[in-house]
Amino acid sequence: MQELTAGRLRRGLADPLLPVSALALLALAAAALDATVLCWSSIGALAGFSLSGSV
């Protein structure tokens, strides 16, 4: 069994997969519901997240 070290824990918590997929799902759901403002705001959040250097 692999041991959970502090480095692996930090990498797992800093992984951008969870927030990016949550924002992408929000954008898709808003587009499906024809909620234009929410769709564009979630796309803007994705763009801001990628430009912030977090990705």
What does this structure look like?
- This protein is 75% helix and 0% strand.
- It is mostly helical.
- It has a domain at 16-51.
- Helix 2 (17-32) runs antiparallel to helix 3.
- The longest helix has 16 residues, at 17-32.
- It is elongated.
- The two termini are 30 Å apart.
- The model has no long low-confidence stretch (mean pLDDT 80).
Shape: elongated
Helix fraction by DSSP (H/I, runs of at least 4) = over 70%
The structure class reads: mainly alpha
Total strands: the figure is 0
Low-confidence stretches: none
Overall pLDDT, averaged?
A: 80
Tell me the strand percentage band. under 5%
Major β-sheet profile: none
**How far apart are the first and last residues' alpha carbons, in Å?**
30 Å
**What Rg, in angstroms, do the CA atoms define?**
15 Å
Features:
55 residues; mainly alpha; 75% helix; 0% strand
